[in-house]
Amino acid sequence: MSLNQTLKEVTERIIARSAETRSAYLARMRAAQGKGPARAHLSCSGQAHAYAATGADQDTLATGTAGHLGIVTAYNDMLSAHQPFETYPTLIRNALRASGGTAQVAGGVPAMCDGVTQGEAGMELSLFSRDTIALATGVALSHNVFDAAVFLGVCDKIVPGLVIGAQTFGHLPAVFLPAGPMTSGLSNDEKSKIRQQFAAGEIGREELLKAEMAAYHGPGTCTFYGTANTNQMLMEFMGLHLPGSSFVNPGTPLREALTIEGAKRALSLSALGNSYTPVCDVLDEKAFANGIVGLMATGGSTNLLIHLIAMARAGGVILDWQDFADLSDVVPLLARVYPNGLADVNHFHAAGGLGYMIGELLNAGFLHPDTKTVAGMGLEHYTQEPFLTDEGLTFRPGTTKSLNEGVVRPATEPFQKTGGLKRLTGSLGTAVIKVSAVAEEHHVIEAPARVFHDQDEAKAAFKAGEFTGDVILVVRFQGPKANGMPELHSLTPMLGILQGKGHKVALVTDGRMSGASGKVPAAIHVVPEALDGGPIARIRDGDMLRLDATTGTLDVLTPGALEREPATADLSSYQHGTGRELFSLFRRAVTSADTGASVFGD
């Protein structure tokens, strides 16, 4: 199948736009490659410091002839998705030692849970934690004693931060090792209904907590298709996972075998062997285009419209939201995973999963087949599935037929002909919207605005019974410069209740929504943000707004509304407490959402 023309054109313009920055980045990586790991050139004292705690591996490291693997881990046992990583370093060290290699934990990076901090002050650190993770990765690898690295991370900001950090050391091979999703518990749909019942005052907190504990019940990633699982999808579409490894449950023999194989594969790709594949060569313009296609075809998290841009820029690749919009117009939606459907990621994996989807998209010309990956040259490797046999881990061709067309469909019979995310432009600026879970009758909302400077204000108005008709909630001063751009997912239950009463409802904000963005239309990531005096700062209560996800527009209809002076807000409550005072430098330095909301600038 020939390459889709839009994919070809978008990729060509990404390559042209990135020519200068990509060339400069690759020149730096080639120079670092030429120098090689520094451990052979360390002073005796330096080597002694580096190897002092390695026990039986000291002699092997001192000779400098064996491959040495760095492990960068986001382990903590508060995050269910990261708790399984506790045992990975010992597993990896033992496996590599048996094959003549060595491994050390190079360093740890922080990992926070957006599920815990939703609606809380800690959420204002969430986006900034991505760049903190990238910085911590740089520190971890700065000793420059490794031939390759593996990265242990799953969730929302952790994988993007690790990818940014890995590209700073892009001359090294990098393999990402996932932990996998928890087994299925209380269905996501039932959990959502109970949350709405609680928000409506129909049940108490004891019943709500019981339901939440039944949904989030063990080690592994949350099973809905939010940002964490979107990250895992991207790592396969972009060639940084082993094929079929994203959604294998923790604590299983196959999960352990994939972890061991991933570590061995990383060392096999180092400059010591004949298959040198540094991460700078894997994450090129075509890989990022493939990632965008995967995001659209799966109806993935809106957060990746920020993270992919930041990840790409770390390797000199310049993406913009128009690239996403153009690919969304042609890439079919092939998956229905909650909140876009009733299935969870375990059901998706069982129905054929990523391997089936990649095969369908390759056959339809929607993916570049000729990308380098950690599994070898060509994305065709990612149509395979891992299996355990008496001889050990093996990869076989995956299914070429969907095993449940209610969950995943062929490219010839998609759930919809366009992707799950769209760009919005108009007199209110530029924004993005996730439409894969929004019913068609809610794609166009025209209604009066109610304006809030805080999500708590909006929730208080709801509890006071102030929403009695059609409404577009405008929640502003939630951008990266104002308060770190928190997710406003805690507004979802009340918005769902209003929609369920028959009102036309939408959200417009310069903040973010979770990867669990659902059935209520939400124009998010509005640029320019209110703190920069963007049009969103000029809206007043009662102004008529129109959100049209069909034409991709976002406008204020009230004459003269945008001629007003922009509103201001008292942001002092965002400056202190729960660690926020430590991130004032980040708030001052951060770029806009459409350029990755990064503190690393251009």
Task: Describe this protein with a few key phrases.
602 residues; alpha/beta; Glucose Oxidase, domain 1; eight-stranded mixed β-sheet; four-stranded parallel β-sheet; 16 strands; 36% helix; globular
Describe the structure.
The protein is of the alpha/beta class and 602 residues long. Among the domains are: 5-183 and 218-286, no CATH class; 421-573, 3-Layer(bba) Sandwich (Glucose Oxidase, domain 1), CATH 3.50.30.80. Helix content is 36%, strand content 14%. It contains 22 helices and 16 strands. The strands form four sheets. Strands 9-10-14-13-12-11-15-16 form an eight-stranded mixed beta sheet. β9 (421-426) and β10 (429-434) form a beta hairpin. α5 crosses α12 (253-268). The longest helix is centred in the N-terminal third of the chain and has 17 residues, at 19-35. The model has no long low-confidence stretch (mean pLDDT 93).
Mean model confidence by pLDDT: 93
Strand content: 5-15%
Q: Rounded to an integer, what's the Rg over CA atoms?
A: 24 Å
* Total beta strands: 16
Main structural class: alpha/beta
Residue windows where pLDDT falls under 50 for at least 5 positions: none
Strand order of the largest sheet: 9-10-14-13-12-11-15-16
Question: Could you say which overall geometry the principal axes of the C-alpha atoms support?
Answer: globular
